């Protein structure tokens, strides 16, 4: 897709989130800053109906409960039926048995088009030996690119592993995105925001691998631009929203650092 | 009322919210910035008790569940008995059947003094043909001023329709508030914040129609001032809080753009 | 402990929160800005497991429900067993009977190492005559230092009373921290953030009285520095995060205003 950001801003896709209570505001706000329309709705009585009028579904298990998982399943089934992309941000998988089980329940019950997590979360989901320190990645022994590629094949999903370098694979093509800035890790929520952005790009681009790659590259570039005049996480976050808002497909052209492996 | 902002700052009314999980922080923080005291409490065991020590109740169904609606009904009944204003922000009405039913349940069970929504949310509540794209307004066929006025009469409530121009009507008087800035729509939550501000103004002004009009005008003026030095939604939000904090009844005097129809 | 901030930044303790939905993001984000790792998890199926891999537990009853209290008890029991510090922020105690009962239930069921609240919340917990206006302190008749000291003795906990001056007592030693700036009270959440910071300092310092004193002094100093270039609550909050991020044990040395009584 040639101008994904312009397309988002022109079509304003509705991106339905069932997400965590920590970063829910930033998930909504970054979706808006990119030009899509966020909506959050988790009641079992309405969540599937909300998915039905949406163009993407973003699930984030950061503060999961069993009731929230049930709503996610209802919405994901509706998304599968409507053939809109489902993004799962597997926050904290590897930290507790419950998270592992609930993530497995989702992946076993519905089709997730894009599975996203940090290195240890994805490694854990892929069956590798990995633990997560709360919601923070720990080092993994396996080769991350290989993990992403193999897991993409076995799950028929696009796999997104975020870290200093982001890895995206659909099993055939594997991309490494090197955009971003370390200040992005100084604030809570950039990971969750990334899932919302991936959902927004996938809402307008049927090639979900390309959509995820573009989303992370564009977001990383905004982070690089924002860091220039930032003194710390406070000013960085302010600048990040301003830069996303003022981003364009033209502006990112010479700044994308993407390698195909 | 002559100096509503000064009155809020001197009396510091407690404004009880049962609201959504997306913008709950900004609802609290903007209430504080205007000089009132926010409190959020939704447990059925305490919500009515919290309302009883408050001066206004703000209900927002942005992330409603049936349990939250039950708590809203308990609190609204307590507010009705205490004769303090109840504000309902009908977020997302028109998007799902469940929202329509729950909004109808509230309006059928308790008296809501001020019903607020965007054009399509209010049109839907008023029985017009309208749909809402998630929580975003869509265009409506009916004349908005007429909708507000008629619905105010039939519901005995003050109706507040927010959009590029805000319409406020108690069935007899109808105001159009033209303050505000388009950057207010670039961040998530200004609609929810507006409901909190209306609650704060209504807490000190028994004329709820005037209170809603003043609240929206003052907030819009803060938005106009904030926009002057803003580069995007990040800096705009920072400036918005600073401008609200530094607002005064004197400062807004020559900036209010209010028409009575 | 000589360099508590450096220690936090080097050891990156995991600080498990079960907290309120209003300030949950800022609790997480300030924990991160100080260098610790926040994690929020409240599902009964996993909360104790998350506590078991953590170095401190922070409980905040700002938007309590009976289910959340049950999860707090599970996590606090796990924390007691693991002998990691439990911090309770008694938000709103004195405002409703339910809050009083639930706080009493926690204090009667598990050991809380650090009990934190504003003057009226702590006075109420200590059995004094006190009421809380929502979540805002009201004036109390008793001598606050004496209340803190006596309550520390009777509860075998460190007591933290926050206000214009913060009082910390373990029953033997009583400190008054005079750092801080009035703009800290202009935004919602600095009280909740303080509890997260206390948890982060207590995670690395077994002397919880010292940890609480240092936490409040460091945070207050960041507030003083942030206030210098702030025009209101918007810019203050941005600056506060930047200052915390750029704080060091060296920088605070000559700025600490702590008296031992």
List keywords for this structure.
homotrimer; 261 residues; alpha/beta; UDP-N-acetylmuramoyl-L-alanine:D-glutamate ligase; nine-stranded mixed sheet
Put the structure in a nutshell.
3 copies of one chain form a homotrimer. Chain A has 261 residues and is of the alpha/beta class. Helix content of chain A is 48%, strand content 15%.
> Which stretches of chain A of 5+ consecutive residues score pLDDT under 50?
none
Mean pLDDT of chain A: 97
- How much of the sequence of chain A is in beta strands? 5-15%
- List the domain count of chain A as a whole number: 1
Tell me what the structure shows.
Three copies of one chain form a homotrimer. Chain A is an alpha/beta fold and 261 residues long. Chain A is built from eleven helices and nine strands. The first copy, chain A, has a nine-stranded mixed β-sheet, sandwiched between helices. The interface between A and B is medium-sized, with 32 and 32 residues.
Topology record:
The structure is a homotrimer of 261-residue chains.
Chain A: H1 4-11, E1 14-18, H2 24-34, E2 37-40, H3 47-52, E3 56-60, H4 66-82, E4 86-89, H5 97-109, E5 114-118, H6 119-125, H7 144-155, E6 158-162, E7 166-169, E8 174-177, H8 190-202, H9 208-227, H10 233-245, H11 249-252, E9 258-260
Parallel strand pairs in A: 1-2, 1-3, 3-4, 4-5, 5-6
Antiparallel strand pairs in A: 6-7, 7-8, 8-9
Helix pairs in contact in A: 2-8, 8-9, 9-10
């Amino acid at each position: 897709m040639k101008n994904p950001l312009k397309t988002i801003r022109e079509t304003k896709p509705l991106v339905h989130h069932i997400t965590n209570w920590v970063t829910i505001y930033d998930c909504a706000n970054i979706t808006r800053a990119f030009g899509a329309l966020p909506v959050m709705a988790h009641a079992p009585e309405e969540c599937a109906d909300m998915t039905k009028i949406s163009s993407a579904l973003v699930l984030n298990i950061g503060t999961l409960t069993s009731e929230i998982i049930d709503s996610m399943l209802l919405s994901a089934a509706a998304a599968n039926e409507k053939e809109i992309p489902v993004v799962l941000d597997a926050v904290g998988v590897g930290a507790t048995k419950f998270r592992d089980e609930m993530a497995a329940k989702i992946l076993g019950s519905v089709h997730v088009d894009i599975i996203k997590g940090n290195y240890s979360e994805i490694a854990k989901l892929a069956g590798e030996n990995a633990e997560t320190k709360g919601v923070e990645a720990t080092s993994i022994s396996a080769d991350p690119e290989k993990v992403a590629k193999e897991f993409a094949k076995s799950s028929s999903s696009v796999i997104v592993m975020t870290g200093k370098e982001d890895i995206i694979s659909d099993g055939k093509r594997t991309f490494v995105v090197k955009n971003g800035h370390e200040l992005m890790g100084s604030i809570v929520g950039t990971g969750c925001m990334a899932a919302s952005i991936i959902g927004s790009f996938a809402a307008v681009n049927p090639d979900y691998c390309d959509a995820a790659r573009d989303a992370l590259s564009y977001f990383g570039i905004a982070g690089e631009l924002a860091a220039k005049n930032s003194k710390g996480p406070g000013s960085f976050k302010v600048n990040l929203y301003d830069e996303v808002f003022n981003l364009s497909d033209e502006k990112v052209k010479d700044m994308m650092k993407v390698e195909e492996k």
